[in-house]
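User: Please predict the structure of the protein below. I'd like the answer in structure-token form so I can feed it into my own downstream comparison script.

Assistant: Understood. Taking the following sequence of 197 residues as input:
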Amino acid sequence: MDYGRIGKGSHSLGSSEGLAGLHFNIDHDGRTSIPDTSSGYLRLGVLATADGRLDQAEAAFQMACRLDPGCSGAYTGLAVVYQQKGLLKAAFDMYLKGLQLDNDNLIALLGLFQASCQMGSFANIIHYLELYLRSHPCDTSVMFCLAALYVRDGQIQKARPLLNELLVLDPSNSDAANLLEEIENCLIQGSADVVKR
């Protein structure tokens, strides 16, 4: 994840990174002060993650969670750290916690999808992708993820209309067109087995 360039002055990380609206100041000597709020620790965690200092990032995100147990961004930050450390089950659990606190947290949603794919476990992610799509019905990347999981789970009847809708919104999406073609071929052949991606 690209957290932006870090240097002297005032900086901001927008909600597109999933750790919404973070602002911090670095003094003229390039030092930051120790925060006294969850958002301060959240900022330190983001900076440490961006610099590859995963142990420091983990400690900062854990402190943010202790100070504000309802902070979705802190749990998502922990999940990113755990995923980068190869701790997929812990990452999965933290992404899930982040989504439970804020089901609009796209970084947590996509991270959960990625961790699910790496672990081969899809039951929880389907529910959260469906929930996210209810409030963001035109998000084609989430639509494709959900359709691919439906196919993997043998739910062709759900994947097919979703892919058709996606292609109406984005006719040039070749991945969606290819997946739909695979589904159509399987249906023509009368096969219940769908290509496992």
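That's the full token string. Confidence is low (pLDDT under 50) at residues 1-28.
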